[in-house]
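User: My advisor asked me to double-check a structure prediction for Inositol-1-monophosphatase before group meeting. I don't want to rely on an old file, so could you generate it fresh from this sequence?
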Amino acid sequence: MGSHLYVMFSKIVYCKSLKCGSYLVHGSQSGSLSIQSQFQREHHWKMSHNVDVEKCLEVASNLVSEAGRLIARNNEQRQDFVCKSNDIDLVTQTDKDVEQLLMDGIRRHFPEHKFIGEEESSGEEGVKKLTDDPTWIIDPVDGTMNFVHAFPHSCISVGLKVNKVTELGLVYNPILEQRFTARRGHGAFYNGRRIHVSGQKELGKALVTSEFGTTRDEAKMKVVHENFEKMARKAHGLRVLGSAALNMSMVALGAADANYEFGIHAWDVCAGDLIVREAGGVVIDPAGGEFDIMSRRVLAAATPELAQEISKVLTQFHPLPRDD
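Assistant: Sure, here is a fresh prediction for Inositol-1-monophosphatase from the sequence you gave:
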């Protein structure tokens, strides 16, 4: 593997070469192959796509600020909503307006870029396939239930993938003026200040976040309740705040130590994944393998030791259908 440096944490392998910054749970041989493959993906885009990531971040930041003002105005009163897949999976006109504002603004600057948006994906075509093309993955209002009730814990989540590698992420709560940003290889920031995960290694000292999700089928709820009971007994604290993107951002900030969830979608975690990793954290599959953004499963933690401990505790659930 040339000059690559690998540090082993039990079965967790961390690639420290050239800002790869991903933890994978594998045996040493297969882990090395997986990391090599990821390294190749992360650096191939420079040859195959002429993407000015700094310009993309500037455009996205300005659009997110504009969209945030719209959300802040509408948050002053309770919102009318429509149910999507069930009576707790909600969409408001603000969700639709914000997604359209973001997509239209990005298209003006980058007409060749693709999109995977939450509200667009709820139509007849479903979730669009993630390709190697520059693709913006957008949740216009993550935490719509909170937004409907004027509970100030919702946000805009925007990520950009090139060659299936996340290059930038923004999570913005305009109600509380909380802005999290990350660019691959350049660190994570909260309101312009560099941030880092807590470094917590022990579940018994960790504050953990999770969510019920937007489905209430019996099989899933059984797993949710089992895991909540386990975390309530083993973790220092458990919090359910209603926004996957903000939960992951809290891990990056060091305000929470870990976040796990079954049933999320790509738009819930695309930006948060990068923000956590750029803050020095770990993002893996809850069973311990490599994080797959289309799997609808995520475990983010401050350290590989904490991620591994939580993975061993969790009852597993595999939501269907996947996002791909």
